[in-house]
Amino acid sequence: MYRGRKKAGKRLYGCLGEQYGRLWDYCETLRRTNPGSCVMLKFEKTNPNLPAKFHRLYMSLAAMKKGFLEGCRPVIGLDGCFLKGPYKGILLAAVGRDANNNMYPIAIAVVESETKDSWTWFLECLVSDLGSHERHTSPPFISDRQKGLIPSFDTVIPMADHRICVRHLYANFQDNGFRGVALKELLWKAALSYTEARDKPILTMLEMIRKQLMRTYQLKRDGISKLEGKMCPRIVEKLEAVGEAASDYLSHYSSDGMFEVVEGRRQYVVDIRNRKCGYRRW
């Protein structure tokens, strides 16, 4: 049964080893058919008498970069997951949030392991690709506490803002004695709701990701074409909820974009022009 399953997998998805030999052609095809895309392939040659071995691959399609730079929030999430199969490796990903609060893929990479060197290489490719090297041009990042990742930030973009993800914050809750079952179950239900292609051969995996991205973009285009108004639907829902909550507040115009907002016995100063609020939340 095991041999039959292996033979069927090879026929469906291709040979695990042979696909590494076709990576160069795959990258050149992506560059030719997706102008503006960034695809970088790195090989290692430790013995001059032996063929070079695959080391790392970075990929960001032109549509992914343009969409993030022109229509997404300026924040990037980083994470990695191990690849299944005999050749192992790690799939790194950089994602953002679009105007409708959906996850937005920016770039992916296949590396040998999660180390300072591999994370540094990925970050260098990413910030160079997006053109954001300094703090005033680099978006803030959020990630877990993977080994080597925090030192990589110190090397590549030391002035960038960097925060830790909720999963590790929850671990801190547990360490401090907050071990609620309901919170844990809800967290893991959300964390495990995903589909990945990481057990497939590398070209098959990359193609599955690319096709999923292509379908996602088309669904978003279809949805946005039916949109009425200038704001995305989830943002409209948030504004409506805020509008209902604002019914308990009274505003008094002062001058030059300045307002005094009263809630019961409390009052705040709101500066529309400079986007500041005495409530400490804009």
Layout: helices, strands, pairs:
Elements: H1 2-13, H2 16-20, H3 23-33, E1 38-44, E2 53-60, H4 62-71, E3 76-82, E4 90-97, E5 103-111, H5 116-130, E6 141-143, H6 149-156, E7 162-164, H7 166-175, H8 181-191, H9 202-225, H10 233-245, E8 250-253, E9 258-263, E10 266-271, E11 276-277
Parallel strand pairs: 3-6, 6-7
Antiparallel strand pairs: 1-2, 2-5, 3-4, 4-5, 8-9, 9-10, 10-11
Helix pairs in contact: 5-6
Quick rundown:
The protein has 282 residues and is of the alpha+beta class.
State the main characteristics.
single chain, 282 residues, alpha+beta, seven-stranded mixed beta sheet, four-stranded antiparallel beta sheet, 10 helices, 11 strands, 22% strand, elongated
